[in-house]
Amino acid sequence: MQYDIIVVGGGHAGIEAALAGARLGKKTLLITMLVEQIGAASCNPAIGGLAKGHLVRELDALGGEMGLCTDATGIQFRILNGSKGAAVQGSRAQIDMDKYRAYMREVCHNTPNLDIYQDEVSELLVKNDEVFGVKTKLTEEFLAKKVILTTGTFMRGLVHIGENTYSAGRAWELPSSTLSIQLKELGLNVGRLKTGTPSRIDANSIDFSVMDLHGGDVNPAPFSFRTDKTKFKPTQYPCYVTYTNLGTHDIISQNFHRAPIYTGQIEGLGPRYCPSIEDKVKRFSERDRHQLFLEPQTSMCTEYYINGMSSSLPIEVQKKMIHSVRGLENARIVRYGYAIEYDYVDPTELKHTLETKKIKNLYHAGQINATTGYEEAAAQGLMASINASLSIDEKEPFILRRDEAYIGVLIDDLVTKGTHEPYRMFTSRAEYRLLLREENADLRLSQYGYELGLISKEQLDKVEEKRKILSDAVELMASTWITSKKETLELLDSIGEEKINDKVLLIDLIGRNTIDNQKFNTLVPTLANIDEYTKEQIIIEAKYYRYIQKQQKQIEKMKKMLKLRIPDEFSYKGLPGLSNEVVEKLEKHRPPTLYNASLISGITPAALDIIHLNLNMFL
Ligand code: FAD
Question: How far is 146 from 63, CA to CA, in rounded Å?
């Protein structure tokens, strides 16, 4: 059977890829191992978090499904870093894992142009370094113009629990055993990584009364810009906090010799920022406790996830360490924690479109590209599919720049720098994080979503309306002087704000003070009647006004810089600050402009700065 796009894998990357392809009018086939497991959350029952929330919002603004699904199935919504600046806040939601899967499966089944088929893709059909279809374990063959691999942790997956190992894609699910061997034979650089997950325990055996309650926000905010905020009233299920103790740490350290990550049993590197409990105890031996969050996996069942206690220690050790924790003394374990090793493909094998450089029409998205996390995977799935669709239509690729979106940062980091350990998104990875805030993702990206055909005109109109209100408000605040006249002093005094010397722009006054709704109404009476959510946005705009102007100037400078031509006779050899590896690559590729240089894998913004500086002296 002939398709436009075949997506291999129904995880978080695969869902977005399949839906986007179909919604863009491409005849799409999603092949996945178990249809019931479409949208399964392999690890924590949560979506979003610091920087990950940004990815979900961006995905949503471009027309992805993750935000809508989270709003429909979330059981606790919370803004992380709520007391800090908007640029580093992150939305996070506990999800009902069962409902999340059911929602995603239903959407996939009911999306026109999208077929679903359960099987294992065992082989890519490739001729002259070009993929033209796939072959499955049940010997079915499907032809397609584009193939997107989103195999997650499944390629030659190997589960470790103590000395026991078994082949699996994730606990008790079949692995994908042949695909990565073929990818290696095709010349792609295939490596090995590791990740892990904690035990799940039965709520009926947990003593929550001795733990701290960790609730959701009083006024929860939805993820999706398309969810009606006024009607968003999810039930906020509680999570609980408890701690490991020295007794727990003793049990773990006495069993380091049985921990697969230390015995040499596991070869792949694990996620640095999501370490197992044995790793935390070893690396931070001075700590006398580690925080654990108990999170419900669903609203209907009683399984709880022990966030912070990922482990691949033998089961008897896991049982002992869990029982040593306050409130978990009698915990009944439903599923034990484990680690999994799997094959990934070096993401520097990819172009910015996520198409592989060596095999035409083959795209990779998600954990196969060495990332970790549902959100990172989903973002790549969407981008791979958009680019596959555009390529079918012989249109220009869709590449988000680092100053436009975290998605741009994610993909640029992966394809230019690569990674040797599971890559997760952080706000610190984004140079322009003041511009790239969660709450303005719709303003930044909806136009693209609309032009691509993934966002409706109605949605775009709402965004444009918001943009107009915000820009009018900024204009007003940036042109209104507050002077030190008597009545102004009285005004400031009435809202408890600082005195001013001579005069100050209203936008700066709002930007540098703590302004709530009431104070805002006093200061900007003409905008007193707009809704609170928009007011909050205006205050954020005021707070970042000066910084944003500065960052925008930097971006303009960078854009100009990237256009700079590099003369043929320019030599990179001996430029201080450039590593031999970078020099070698630049000499080999001889990029005609700084922009072309920036597309070469391993050429960092710092390296570009050095070349730029030396070019200026050369020209
Ligand atoms: P997945 O969600 O893994 O989906 C892959 C899909 O592809 C599956 O549906 C599978 O059936 C299908 N598939 C694979 N091969 C084939 C084939 N050949 N033919 C047909 N279908 C195929 N992330 C974190 O952020 N933090 C963590 O602490 C964390 N811990 C984890 C622990 C474990 C044990 C596991 C398994 C994952 C963990 N993750 C964690 C990672 C997170 O689950 C992934 O990053 C995310 O699910 C990746 O999405 P994906 O779409 O790339 O792959």
Answer: 21
The 10s digit of each residue's pLDDT in 450-470 is: 999 999 999 999 999 999 999
Q: Which helix (H) or strand (E) holds 444?
A: helix 441-452
Angle, alpha carbons 170-90-242 (nearest 5°): 65
Residues 6 or more apart whose CB falls under 8 angstroms from that of 263 comprise 257
Short-list 153, 344, 160, 324, CA closest to 249: 324
Share of the chain above pLDDT 70, in %: 97
DSSP letter string, 230-280: GG-------EEEEE--HHHHHHHHTTGGG-HHHHSS--SB--TTS--HHHH
From atom 3 of ligand 1, which residue's Cα is the shortest distance away? Answer: 152
Q: Is 49 annotated as a binding residue?
A: no
Is 500 known as a binding-site position? Answer: no
Torsion region of 390: left, alpha or beta (phi above 0 gives left; psi -120 to 50 gives alpha): alpha
Whether 340 contacts 158, CB under 8 Å: yes
- The tokens of 118 are what? 């359960």
Provide mean pLDDT across the span 211-229. Answer: 95
Tell me which residue of 149, 137, 185 sits closest to 364, measured CA to CA: 149
Q: Which residues pair with 93 in a beta bridge?
A: 47, 77
Pocket test for ligand 1, best of 374, 375, 414, 426 (most atoms within 8 A of CB): 374
- Whether residue 368 contacts residue 414, with contact meaning beta carbons closer than 8 Å, is answered with no
pLDDT at residue 555, as a whole number: 84
CA distance 18 to 34: 15
Residue 282, marked binder: yes
Torsion, CA 3, CA 4, CA 8, CA 10, rounded to 10: -100
368 CA to middle of ligand 1, Å? 9
Q: Which residues contact 580 (CB under 8 A, 6 or more apart)?
A: none
- The identity of residue 249, as a single letter, is H
Number of H helices, E strands in the chain: 20, 22
Written as one letter, the residue type at 410 is: L
Entry pTM: 0.92
User: For a pocket test of ligand 1, which of 37, 43, 419 has the largest count of ligand atoms closer than 8 A to its C-beta?
Assistant: 43
Q: Which pLDDT belongs to residue 487?
A: 62
Mean pLDDT is highest, among 234-238, 425-429, 492-496, 543-547, for 234-238
What is the 3-state composition of the chain as percent helix, strand, coil, each rounded to the nearest 5? 40, 20, 40
Residue 537, helix vs strand vs coil: helix
Binding site annotation covers 525?
no
Q: Is the minimum distance from the CB of 551 to ligand 1 under 6 angstroms?
A: no
- Please give the number of the atom of ligand 1 that sits closest to the Cα of 9: 7
Amino acid at residue number 237: Y
CB-CB contact of 84 with 437 (8 Å): no
Whether residue 148 has its Cβ less than 6 Å from ligand 1? no
List, in sequence order, every beta strand (DSSP E) within 439-556. 481-483, 503-505
Residues 6+ apart with CB under 8 A from 314: 161, 162, 163, 164, 255, 258
Cβ neighbors of 142 (< 8 A, separation 6 or more) are 1, 2, 3, 6, 29, 31, 117, 133, 134, 136
Known binding residue 64? Answer is no
Q: How many CA atoms lie within 13 A of 423 on its CB side?
A: 26
153 lines ligand 1 (CB under 6 A): yes
Which of the listed residues 32, 66, 118, 172 should we mutate to test ligand 1's pocket, taking the one with most ligand atoms within 8 A of CB?
32
